[in-house]
Specification:
heterodimer; A: 149 residues; alpha+beta; Alpha-Beta Plaits; 2 domains; two-stranded antiparallel ribbon; 8 strands; B: 425 residues; alpha/beta; 5-stranded parallel beta sheet; transport (chain A)
Amino acid sequence: MKRIYSIEDACIGCHLCEVACITEHSQSKDPVKAFLHEPVRPISRCTVEEWDGGVISLSTNCRHCDEPDCLRACISGAIQKQENGVVLIDTEQCVGCWSCVMACPYGAVQRNLNKKKANKCDLCPERENPACVDACPNRALVYKEGSQK
Amino acid sequence: MNYVIIGNSVAAVGAIRGIRNHDSEGTITVISRENHIAYGRPLISYLLGGTITEKRMAYLPEDFYEKNRVNLLLGSEVVGVDSDKKRVKLAAGDTVPFDKLLIATGGDPFVPPIEGMSGKEKVFTFTTWDDAAKLKGLAYDIQRVVVIGGGLIGLKAAEGLYQLEKKVTIVELADRILSAAFDRTAGRIVAKKMKANGIDVITEDTVVRIEGDGAAISGVTLKSGDFIPCDTVIVAIGVRPAAGFLKGSKVEVNRGIVVDDRMETSAKGIYAAGDVAEARDFFTSSKNPMPIWPDAYIQGDVAGVSMAGKDKGYAGGLAMNSIELFKVPTISMGITNPSDEKEFEILTYQDQENYQYRKIVLKDNLLMGAVLVGAVDRAGIFAGLIREKIDVAPFKDKLLTVDFGFIHLTKEIRSTLFAPQGKVA
């Protein structure tokens, strides 16, 4: 399956992947409205990590694992792996117990405290490429066929 | 191949998927003494408290059993296993033959004899959907509850009853609540929050007598001599592997059903997984029962693959719990409270006022365990460091920071996990 990979040396730490992710998962799909005017701002499913004042940075994201630890830990069955390989959270079913946060070794499941629901990458089903990949100004994110590790 | 699975919770589900990944032909029969299809067992406290409806108890997509071609025998209790003739005996008298058998019966609540208990109407355990439904149905008739046991089950029952506006007292024998998963500090922080919400938490004491005339309960008397008025008692002392029906079979049962790394028992062709099993521990390699949800899934998967004739490694059971109580999230994993502190290096950060606590347990620069209270985000990174046995020496000083992440690990690890393989177009 296609996954999002991250090239550390190309990452400039601009966080545009996070902005794009939040925008894509907003109601308006407009960054200004999503950040300022919508009642609940989505939270980013990718996480840009920085160290040393931004000298080192990397956008980390869900691996859509073959055997997802989040799925195995989920007590409500809200996390399922689709036939196309995408690992999704059914937010209606999620009870916000954070077992997936406990289990994911990639740190790729977020707590959405506004909604008390777990949150993770869905690979942007309405787009050809995930929004974070399209937004990256230095092609530090690539979307290609590949394995989990 | 004729697969039979006793039990219908998460280990059984892991096994069904494990079998079907390798064998799309064989027949699978699931026998469960409960009348429900697989449900999120830990959700019973949410159901009791009214946070979720019955519809959301369903653990699986609606078409799961059909898609995986599983025959369901619900409401059927297995009373015996004949390991030589390869068949199980049901309470109703009939027998079910098998080629490969998985025992995934989970745990039964342990109820010790307590003086005054027999004949009392409102004494309950709290491990099944039916337990929750029964309590919820009687809720109008319940005012004050004493919960015996401050473990996970007791605390979640207490929270559910609190949400129904019942007055709750927890009585715990150890010096803190959640003594299996927490250390003293974490236990104290959560107890403080519970007390702030009006739950009485009594530690280092136990119920010695249930008081009351006839079927009604008037209260309980504690070992300390204190009397606590109540009309309902919930016994939540712990669970024991539900393996009693194996008496007389050739399956070795210690505290749980002893299994190897393929989840096979001492009887060939018979496997066990989940809370009923006694499998290898991640750290010590000794075997012990580990009633941990994700581990039950993993054991079920390993068992299913083995039953289908393939091999899949088992890394060993790693305890981990994510428990939110009264809006204080906690995640703990691995060794959280080492008995011999000299062998371990322990790092802590705490801000008890704000319900924040982080504890890291190291041994020879390997992460052995963690306790997080409050800021639990990305806790799974710690689980990865434990499982992969990563040397933490280069970033030890960063482990307690709330934004600890992959950036503090080596570039090599980051590349392995996140970088594209091969040529990037």
